[in-house]
Design a protein that fits this description.
Largest sheet: 5 strands, parallel
Strand order of the largest sheet: 2-3-4-1-5
Bound molecules: adenosine-5'-triphosphate, magnesium ion
CATH class of the largest domain: Alpha Beta
CATH topology of the largest domain: Rossmann fold
Number of strands: 10
Mean pLDDT: 88
Radius of gyration: 24 Å
Structural class: alpha/beta
Order of helices and strands: HHEHEHHEHEHHEHEHHEHHEHHEEH
CATH architecture of the largest domain: 3-Layer(aba) Sandwich
Strand content: 5-15%
Number of helices: 16
Low-confidence stretches: 108-127
Number of domains: 3
Shape: globular
Length: 373
Amino acid sequence: MPDKQLASRITKNPFTPEFGRVPAYMAGRQDVISEMARAFDEGSGNPNLCTIFVGARGTGKTAMLSYLSDEASRLGWVAANVTATPGMLEDIVQRSKEAAAHLLAPEGKRKLTGVEVAGIGAVSWENESGEAPNWRSRMNAILNELGEEGTGLLITVDEVDPSLDEMIQLVTTYQHFIREDRKVALLMAGLPHNVSALLSGKVTSFLRRASQYDLGGLFDDEVEEAFRLTAEEGGRIVEQDALDVAVREIGGFPFMFQLVGYRAWNIARGGAITKDDVTTGARLAREELSRRIFDSTYAELSKGDRAFLVAMLDDDGYTTRDNLMQRLGKTTSYISTYKKRLLEAGVIEEQEPGVFTFALPGFREYLLDKKER
Ligand SMILES: Nc1ncnc2c1ncn2[C@@H]1O[C@H](COP(=O)(O)OP(=O)(O)OP(=O)(O)O)[C@@H](O)[C@H]1O
Ligand SMILES: [Mg+2]
């Protein structure tokens, strides 16, 4: 059947090694996805409606926000997805209107609490006293109209930035939405050090009480199942020994999952992905990973951070605090300062007090390579 063979050769690669892309199959994360679906279903009062996702680079924060935003839309919510950059609040207004265009009354048809809700492209935001309403009033107008339809508004904020004042304003105003019993949800995502800086900064205690979800590593069985299903989605099976290699090479890391799959898929010739395809694919994936993730992680580290990590290279598995103090010639409090920074950056883990390992799979090898060069 030549036609069928041709079709299988030109099937699109189902792996998505691009930042922010929702994968064909979300490996793991089932618990949080169903918890969140329940929250959207129940609406006001469910504590998960305000959740912060925390994870190192490439762990799937953006993909999770997009996935949940689609899920919420499916369940009848309107979703406004933004990134924490200057102008974010205005963007939330615009995105909300865009997403709710089918629900909001066209301009001039309606007046609510003295604020006219404008449809797309028609902005007429003057209240009776002639003053331009502030952000909260504009959001209230949108929420009032959505509320009449029984629709909730989900705001997702990616790449939370503790230095952005608009973050604080958003959270403070969100708290008022809750007090006014409006149907709203706020999902945020960020790198560990940004989230912890945000939570320890001048935010309200409200945010400190928000649910936090750690997007840590995926379990091997979750990786195996999703890898197999993703390949099958594209019309190829994966041989069992190939799956074993894939699981080992991916090490629970979502971005690596997509990179290995993508490469192995392209290398595979027939209808099946073999162990050799995955082995070669994984080698290419590792090179790509270090270019894309490790370079940007490394660039964000200070001199002191780097010295700490280089001192860890002398050990193969675990490094103890005592060893670090000796190698760096520094005090306990110095080690504590850098330990905290590196934990927050998601670069190291503290398995038990005073015992450190590398958190990002492959980062140790990357540093070794850099040191040798
Ligand atoms: N649960 C998952 N299963 C499989 N692949 C996933 C999963 N989550 C994310 N991915 C894939 O991993 C890659 C990285 O995801 P994403 O861009 O969401 O990470 P991120 O945490 O936002 O990274 P960054 O901090 O750099 O913004 C993407 O290619 C995405 O498709
Ligand atoms: Mg992202």
